[in-house]
């Protein structure tokens, strides 16, 4: 309500409206903006985060290929198969789950934040 006070005062002065009508108009505009955000913007953000989470494994494969290309150009060869296995295990067991968890956490946070804002505004 505090953040909407200034727009309400400007609307009240500019159009010489009563305070109650100004409040109603500002709350209506705010509600429309929040509903628009909830219906159109949040799903786009969520799908982008999900796409990012799905593209992380291919990105990790590209990084592995880049490391292999660099190591072959500089005659830097990892001959110990245990080290290669440990690197691959680290990537598949740590990096991929952590990145997927982070993406889903951010997505859930945005959805929860928007639902809290909408429910607070409606009530």
From TrEMBL:
Main location: membrane
Upper taxonomic lineage: Bacteria, Bacillati, Bacillota, Clostridia, Eubacteriales
Gene Ontology CC, one term: membrane
Keyword Transmembrane helix: yes
Xref: Pfam families: AI-2E_transport
Listed name of the protein: AI-2E family transporter
Alphabetical keyword list: Membrane, Transmembrane, Transmembrane helix
Membrane topology: Multi-pass membrane protein
Organism: Clostridium perfringens
Transmembrane segments: 21-41
Subcellular location: Membrane
Similarity annotation: Belongs to the autoinducer-2 exporter (AI-2E) (TC 2.A.86) family.
């Amino acid at each position: 309500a505090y953040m909407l006070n200034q727009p309400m005062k400007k609307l009240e002065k500019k159009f010489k409206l009563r305070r109650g009508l100004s409040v109603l108009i500002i709350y209506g505009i705010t509600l429309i903006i929040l509903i628009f955000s909830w219906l159109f913007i949040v799903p786009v953000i969520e799908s982008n985060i999900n796409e990012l989470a799905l593209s992380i494994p291919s990105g990790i494969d590209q990084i592995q290929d880049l490391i292999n290309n660099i190591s072959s150009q500089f005659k830097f060869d990892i001959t110990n198969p245990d080290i290669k296995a440990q690197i691959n295990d680290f990537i598949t067991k740590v990096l991929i789950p952590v990145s997927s968890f982070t993406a889903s956490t951010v997505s859930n946070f945005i959805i929860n934040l928007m639902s809290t804002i909408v429910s607070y505004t409606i009530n």
